[in-house]
Amino acid sequence: MKILLTGANGYIGKRLLPLLVEQGHEVTCLVRDPRRFGLPATLKEKVQVEKGDLLDLNSLKNLPPDIDTAYYLVHSMGGDGKDFSKMEDQAARNFTVSLNTTSAKQIIYLSGIANVGNLSTHLSSRLHVEDVLAEAKASLTVLRAAIIIGSGSASFEILRDLVEKLPVMITPKWLKSKCQPIGIRDVIFYLTQVQGDQRFYGKSFEIGGPEVMTYKEMILRFAKLRGLKRYIISVPVLTPRLSSYWLYFVTSTSFSLARNLVDSLRNDVVVIDHSIENLIPHHCLTFDQAIKLAFSRIEQNMVVSSWKDALVSGNMHLNYMDFVQIPEHGVLTDKKRRKFNRPVDEVQQNIWRIGGERGWYKTDFLWRIRGLLDKMVGGVGLRRGRRSPYDLKAGDTLDFWRVLVADEQQRRLLLYAEMRLPGEAWLQFKICEEADGNYLEQLAAYRPNGLIGRLYWYAVLPFHSIIFGGMIENIIDYRK
Question: How many alpha carbons lie under 13 Å from residue 199 in its C-beta half-sphere?
Fold first, then answer.
């Protein structure tokens, strides 16, 4: 089968792609920027990559004409714009128009369970996308799921933040809403099983795990599995907006995603239609099994994908790889260079493990304050952490930075700031092996936006000698 995979850079797409290739399918991945699509070496020769933006119809002209099945795994829930449904409508319509020029027989779309009235904006938009995709010549297969539990999923990470950071929680009344969580392994199973099977053409199915529970029960079950005692106090005074701020400040989610999640959590999302069980008999993981499996992947550093892999702003036009080179002009810099005598690989290892639980090697409390200030103005803050404590790849999030270059052979790590700034900022580490010895070069670069941007740079300049000076010394000296 020849398959078109959209959303290949996303949480679901990254996990689905290797299985499709393993099953012998010819897969074409549609991505906005091939530069940030990091294919594993084992897949590079087996996967075709096409550049295209679903919001730009003209960019979709190069779709392969002989497609059999197309996976539509994109959404704009985390977008900054309040009316992300317009973006989802436009993307789906452009996709449908372009796909009609191919021989595709089936579209597979992962949607949300929406079988109650007064739907949230998010769930209403998902249903609308279903209607748009159904207008295509190819038959539409819809799989509707509630909360997806897996290492790196937004639901899992938010639950983890709540449970591990808050012994006592003052929560809104939506914790009484019911849901039917499903493990990521089971979602991927269903996505692969319905492919090419005519029994699923033109139909919609609901998928869920074996248990129905309230969000409060989920939190307490999660806490029990982690050996933690947690207390939940529900109050009726938290409005949706206050609830969004509460979730935003407590967890690593962005405010736009928190807002849309809270809006959706007022709806019960429980499977009513069990027809898929007759067509594909399958025992889904329990909630406890899905949580344990997620933590086993984390402990083994085998987190394949994360919801944070998506752009922080959710702006589908943003192309952060355009910043992969630090500008030569109009940039203020703080450059430090130190010679070292210890093995190069040890210093490089320290660079590659920066951030996350290890921290930033110097004055971590100042980094946390900066993260808190960022949160207060609607930024991402410092809670996103990192995908793996040892490995870095281009496109990874690293606290409030984005990894642009992680070149182990050239010994160069380049980060781009996603915090709220009156300008643009880069942080680069590079090991230079020269005739008289080895040097670590650390460069903080900032391109200010007008007068305010310049004032910001000079306001924080006194802290640079403390933060960056100590950082380069400790990266060289750190031993564990």
Answer: 10
The single-letter code of the amino acid at 216 is: K
**Does residue 253 contact residue 384 with C-beta atoms inside 8 Å?**
no
CA–CA dist 429, 439 (Å, integer): 11
Torsion of CA 99, 100, 106, 108, to 10 degrees: 40
β 412-417/423-434 pair status: antiparallel
Cβ atoms of residues 62 and 30 within 8 Å: no
Burial of 109 from C-beta contacts in 10 A (0-12 / 13-18 / 19+): buried
Nearest alpha carbon to residue 350 among 390, 410, 393:
390
Q: Which helix (H) or strand (E) holds 48?
A: strand 47-51
Joined together, the tokens standing for residue 438 give: 């080895």
Full-model pTM:
0.76
Q: Considering only CA atoms, which of 321, 282, 467, 477 is closest in space to residue 402?
A: 321
Report the distance separating Cα 302 and Cα 17, nearest Å.
Answer: 16
150-180 pLDDT, tens digit each: 887 778 888 888 888 888 887 777 678 889 9
